Amino acid sequence: MTLDVAWADRWARLSAERIAGAKDELTELDRQIGDGDHGENLDRGFRAVVAKLDDAGDLAQVGDLLKLVATTLMSSVGGASGPLYGTAYLRAAKVTGLETLDAHAVVALLEGALEGITARGKAVVGEKTMVDAWQPAVDAAEAAANDGGSPVDVLAAAASAADAAARATVPLVATKGRASYLGERSVGHQDPGATSTAILLAAARDAAAVDVGDGR
């Protein structure tokens, strides 16, 4: 099976739904070690994404839709998360100029997103940022694809790894971003960016699983 622009549309809309549902949780996580606006900012951004999709008409390629998500997030999300996620979706769009994605193309999408985040934020694994969820997700996705997994398998592996990795940020000391100002006091708190990463990748997995359920 392959994934197409209809999947990308479902992913964006489901992301908006899941972020709205997790807004308070993300805000509280960010209040503990950041500005306290992560949930509100992402919710506003993905609501804007849905509005743009409603007006966009038919898009031919996955990359076209991801570019729309990218530019909308960049223009509507404040704080650090807008530029970071916007660049992630933009880099993903550049490597997915296709009508359909197989498992390895899905890996390329995720790798592009990670490259965008690291290029923009200059973070590495272990600094208590969203990279701590993205890197394990990409590694798991690549392993699943190399083992012959389907696109759904790849996204399931990525989502599972991201969720576990987000939880694993709790004992880390933040050394990047606003949370780094807290030093040792950041220990014991889950990183909000890693948490939203896990939410978005779970939405990608669940949006893909609809195709399987439909027999496509």
UniProtKB/TrEMBL annotation:
Domain of life per record: Bacteria
Cellular component GO terms held in the UniProt record: cytosol
SMART domains: Dak2
UniProt keyword list: Kinase, Transferase
InterPro entries given in the database record: DhaK_L_YcgS, DhaL_dom, DhaL_dom_sf, Dihydroxyacetone_Kinase
One matching Pfam family: Dak2
A GO molecular-function descriptor: glycerone kinase activity
GO terms for biological process, alphabetical: glycerol catabolic process
Residue ranges annotated for the DhaL domain, each copy included: 6-206
Cited NCBIfam families: dha_L_ycgS (TIGR02365)
Name assigned to this protein: Dihydroxyacetone kinase subunit L
